[in-house]
Amino acid sequence: MNEPVARPDIDPIDRLAILAAALPGAVVGQRRIAAPFEAVWQVIADLEHATPRYEPGVAQVRVIERRGEFLRLLVRDTAGREDAMDARLRPGWCVMQSDTIVIAFAARRLGGETLLAHLEHRRGRTPAPGPHESQVDRAALAKIDQELHTIEKLATHDEH
Q1: What's residue 159's pLDDT?
Q2: Interacting residues of 140 by C-beta distance below 8 A, sequence separation 6+
């Protein structure tokens, strides 16, 4: 997997912003989570168990290969379709991509809290022209906001 921004001294949130700039039509949401970095990152890093809990379109994630921070995933959506994804996972940075989608998370500590950013990009989707958000972008932002909210609940063990 190519790392679009490989410098380790770049803040993960900034790295995600750079990735978003390189992917026209990418949608990014951020949330300040009232939980320590370790608790938040534990949710993100638990791809097999946590992802189906916060991503409504995912039924199952299986890690089928692991080489250090490089992973190969098999993701089954709720309609039963499977897609292989390449992933890179390290503390504060997770990027997963297939032929059709790029998903990324970045996090940094904010004292006892965590700033978490989430990117979603459908390959081949062209962004709406002009400065106005499209309905698709608004729906994608609402979806990302709900996912970040659920991740916060999982990280704080408040699952109600």
Answers
A1: 44
A2: 27, 120
